[in-house]
């Protein structure tokens, strides 16, 4: 390209730019411009506070505004416009508030798109929520241990529908920032979350962080010795037991080096009549704690379904039944002490009534007078299946024949 041609092109571009500036600066034709996402300022927020109400949302609203004016006056940003809406008079439930917009200079507001904003107003509440630590990156073989947490609850305020969504206050902690056996302190930011851990927006908290004091303790597994005391009740048999045999403990390296085993508090099974779970409570030396790796430390005891109860009585309680006609039976005049063992399902012998079992001797096979030692039998109340054994197991019975009265001979007539 020749030098003359280059010069001509430069002159042409300069003339075009000059004409454009002339049109903008001198002619400055009228036009319209749409300014998008102009932030709305909410007025009279104190009205809602005094009425114990709150907007169920973050309170951040925007509108699009169509402006008219000279072209050079319409070179504006959303922040150059002022959009406001008055919250006075709102009531619980769905509301619509009107937006007013003022524009600078010689511009005119032609249209406010979405001039009425829909807002939902709810009851203003404040509720204490628990602080839950979310600890990550804990070095293997150690356990993150909280020595102090202040506060451990945070007050959450805002619209009731949103506050109700908050399950707890999440505090995210990186375990890599802590040293084994050394106490570290930190201020940790907090986040209100729902039950699934999702951030709940548009609520306020009375604190912006919590003060945390923590360390990393070493974890060690050692044998756990637990003594079982007592016996099941109602004669139930202990079929099996499952008791934790090891326990995970945590502490400083120096404290853990002294420990080779841990004793637990004795487990008392005296009188139990059904399968039972008991909490195992290790007896920990000073400076040592249980590790969360243990989970739920319980011992389980499985019992037989059958049991036995024992009662004392005597032979006077034994009935004589089934004796044939023409015979009579008697027990010894002196009552004989009896020990009665009643065996059955645990549910049936629990709280067994005094009349639940009756004792008797069956004489239906006795055909003649004599001295007999007969087994003592037991009969349970209707609906129960019980086995009854007595000691002694037999009763001495004397059977005699009934003497028939002599018939009188008729008198002879003279």
Overview of the molecule:
Strands 2, 5, 8, 10, 11, 13 and 14 form a 7-stranded mixed β-sheet that branches. Strands 9, 12, 15, 18, 19 and 22 form a 6-stranded mixed β-sheet that branches. Strands 6-4-1-3-7 form a 5-stranded mixed β-sheet, with no helix packed on it. The protein folds into 4 domains: 3-114, RNA Polymerase Alpha Subunit, Chain A, domain 2 (Beta Complex), CATH 2.170.120.30; 124-216, YbbR-like domain (RNA Polymerase Alpha Subunit, Chain A, domain 2), CATH 2.170.120; 226-304, Beta Complex (RNA Polymerase Alpha Subunit, Chain A, domain 2), CATH 2.170.120; 307-401, RNA Polymerase Alpha Subunit, Chain A, domain 2, CATH 2.170.120. It is mainly beta and 414 residues long. It has helices at 3-27, 45-50, 160-163, 253-256, 346-349, and strands at 30-43, 53-55, 61-70, 82-86, 93-98, 100-102, 108-113, 116-136, 142-150, 153-159, 168-174, 184-189, 191-193, 204-205, 209-225, 228-229, 238-242, 246-251, 262-263, 267-268, 276-279, 289-290, 298-303, 306-314, 318-321, 327-331, 337-345, 357-362, 370-375, 377-380, 387-391, 394-401. 10% of the residues lie in helices and 49% in strands. The model has no long low-confidence stretch (mean pLDDT 91).
